[in-house]
Amino acid sequence: MHRDYFVDERFFSDSKSVAFLSKKGIRLHPISLDSRLYEGISGHSDIVGCPVFLTTVIEREVYDHHRFDLREFDITLGQSSLARDYPYDVRYNVAIFGKTAIHSKYIDSVIKELLTKEKVESIVVKQGYAKCSIVVVDEKSIITSDIGIYRACKEKLDVCLVSVWKDIFLWGMEYGLLGGTSLTRGREIYFTGDIRKHPDYWKMKNFADQKGVSLLSMSEGRLVDVGGFLPLYLKTKDNSM
Angle at CA 137, nearest 5°, toward 49 and 165? Predict the structure, then answer.
């Protein structure tokens, strides 16, 4: 079971959620806020990097800043630089599960090459913040509130469409996105707050139950969009830098 994840440093202020993940055997590594990005996403893992099988593609400047903390992990440097304006903030925002990747046309070239090499099927969507908008359930199933993603994926994947909920907290913004509140690990999905408060909770629960997947709340508080949790893979003798 995977144990190391890169996450927005602001997540650590939620001691209950941190303790919940610690009990699950998860080790968290903080992402410093990046002044090149706007406040809400300035520490979001789904903005700065993307896992592609056993390596993690990370934007170069972010890697340089966290080089010491990431020294034991297999990192591939991305080609694109981050910037505040769209689409320069969505180059690494890619949802990858099984042999499927969902992303916009603005994907980083290094990620694109790795997906081709691994024979991953890409579903290109208009939503630049694709990863932020998707809760992965299993290798063939997702939950989303984005109608464009739903329409693009429904013929190839099992998709549960839920309502946009404006009570998801995101720093400096009106509301956040559901995918950014979640961590899928094995047959469990953890949420940064109480997922039972979501108006479509029972719809999501029934969908997940059919897949043998459990929805778990890290705390009883409000859901917080922290930009998800970016897997980090330990180096091996074959892939060490």
Answer: 80
Give domain status of residue 109, yes or no. Answer: yes
Calculate the dihedral angle through the C-alpha atoms of 32, 64, 190, 222, rounding to the nearest 10 degrees.
20
The answer to whether 22 and 15 are in contact (CB under 8 A) is no
Owning domain of residue 162? 3-232
pTM: 0.96
SS3 breakdown of the chain: % helix, strand, coil, rounded to 5?
25, 25, 50
Residue 100 within a domain: yes
* Chain segment 4-23, per-residue pLDDT in tens: 999 999 999 999 999 999 99
Q: Is the pLDDT of residue 241 over 70?
A: no
CATH at residue 39:
3.75.10.10
Residue 221 vs residues 42, 189, 191: alpha-carbon distances, Å: 22, 16, 10
Structure tokens at 158: 């099992």
Neighbours of 200 (CB within 10 A): 17
3 state DSSP class of 8 = strand
Task: Count up the domains in the chain and report the number.
Answer: 1
Query: Cis omega (within 30 of 0) on the bond before 87?
Result: yes
Please say if the pLDDT value at position 239 is more than 80.
no
Amino acid type, 193: G
